[in-house]
């Protein structure tokens, strides 16, 4: 699974932030590695240092093999909160999307099973 971390202008400590985000994505979304071939994380500061409520933004795009990509966004007052909010949304969206496309139950009918005789 490829992971691309993109940080926008106005973001401080880009290298540290990218390393941290990469390890967090691998830890929390790694279980989807058989189905997801690429994850892109976009971190940005909407007001570039001017401050303000909910000015940090995180967009996570998960490119799923043979299915449409999943994209989620979360805005918060800190990069950590924005990232964790988007990460949580991405996990739920992937669970939902992939859960609908996997076989969960054995679809054999009890009507076709041989009769069980009790002693």
TrEMBL record:
It comes from the Bacteria. Residues 94-109 have a biased composition (Basic and acidic residues). Residues 94-119 are annotated as: Disordered. InterPro entries: RHF-like, RHF/RaiA. This is HPF/RaiA family ribosome-associated protein. It comes from Variovorax guangxiensis. The lineage of its organism: Bacteria, Pseudomonadati, Pseudomonadota, Betaproteobacteria, Burkholderiales.
């Amino acid at each position: 699974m490829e992971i691309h971390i993109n940080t926008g202008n106005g973001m401080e400590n880009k290298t540290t932030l990218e390393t941290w985000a990469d390890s967090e994505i691998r830890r929390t979304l790694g279980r989807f590695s058989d189905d997801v071939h690429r994850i892109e994380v976009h971190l940005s500061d909407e007001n570039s240092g001017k401050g303000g409520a909910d000015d940090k933004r995180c967009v996570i795009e998960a490119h799923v093999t043979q299915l449409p990509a999943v994209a989620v966004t979360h805005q918060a007052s800190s990069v950590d909160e924005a990232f964790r909010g988007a990460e949580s949304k991405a996990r739920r969206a992937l669970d939902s999307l992939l859960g609908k496309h996997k076989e969960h139950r054995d679809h054999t009918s009890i009507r076709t099973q041989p009769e069980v005789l009790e002693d």
